[in-house]
Amino acid sequence: MKILPVLDILNQKVVRGVAGQRDTYQPIQSRLTESNQPLDIARALRDEFQISEFYVADLDAIVHGKLNLDLYQNLLDHEFTFLLDCGLRYAADSQPLTSLPGISVVAGLETLAGPQELGQLVEQWGSQQTVFSLDLKQGQPLVSDVPHNEYALIKDPLKIAELSLSQGIQQMILLDLAQVGTGKGTGTEELCYILRSRYPELRLITGGGIQNCNDLMAQAKLDADAVLVASALHDGRIDREAVLSLI
Fold it and tell me: Structural domain tally of the chain?
């Protein structure tokens, strides 16, 4: 199981995300570095945990529509690769990213205009570089308010997951934003179990609310392929030995 450190970026700084309440996010405080700059944080995590692949949530883009293209390029120049959620609504929105080898685009349910846009992203980027994020809040689908969004008609997360698979998705993030940063677990265990049972070839990425090594082991037992971790890496609840034992 891979560990994917999370870089939540707001105002071009790495912040600590808590329960999806983005107006309260504050710059990260890490035992690994005094800096909150994305490149410094990425370097510190690589030095400590020998990890160079990340999950980047660009909140400047998701919330304000401002892509941090120079920041992405800077990370790539320093030999980092990452899954990038930059608030894509339409497949055409990914055009500025095509010059950035080393990224995979994340299509988040929270912002995506509908399943047809997801299908177009898979066509443009391929199934190995397109990841669908099944965004939830307290177990309920978190859906964009774009007009005529077919996702808004579906209340069952499992049905949304299966619809995304019909669009060619082979990689999926299960993320309940209400759990992020709380240390109370992912809240998606049952959904992960069902999807793994029905679709063994699907690459499943879980996360949000990871408290300690026991939570990591619980995700490993669910046969998750990767898990998103943020705060627990910075404050020492998950240490170097634990990460290296998994990767």
Answer: 1
Hey, CA dihedral for 236, 41, 5, 88, is it positive or negative?
positive
Q: Do 212 and 237 form a contact (C-beta atoms < 8 A)?
A: yes
What average pLDDT is seen over the chain? 92
**DSSP structure class, residue 3:** E
For 34, 125, 240, the CA distances from 108, given in Å and listed in that order, are 31, 15, 30
Q: Are 187 and 178 in contact (CB under 8 A)?
A: yes
Rounded CA-CA distance 117/210 in Å is 31
The residue among 12, 187, 65, 229 whose CA lies nearest residue 246 is 229
3-state secondary structure of 7: strand
8 Å CB contact between 36 and 13: yes
The DSSP-derived string for 112-134 is: ---HHHHHHHHHHH-TTSEEEEE
The alpha-carbon radius of gyration of the chain (Å, integer) is: 17
Task: Find the domain containing 45 and state its range.
Answer: 2-245
pLDDT at 93: 97
Identify the residue whose tokens are 């995300």: 17
pLDDT at 43 over 80: yes
Give tens-digit pLDDT for 104-149: 999 999 999 999 999 999 999 999 999 999 999 989 999 998 999 9
- Copy the structure tokens of residue 176: 């309940």
- 3-class SS of residue 56: strand
Report the CATH number that the domain containing residue 18 is assigned in CATH. 3.20.20.70
Phi, psi of 207, rounded to the nearest 5 degrees: 155, 180
- pTM listed for this prediction: 0.93
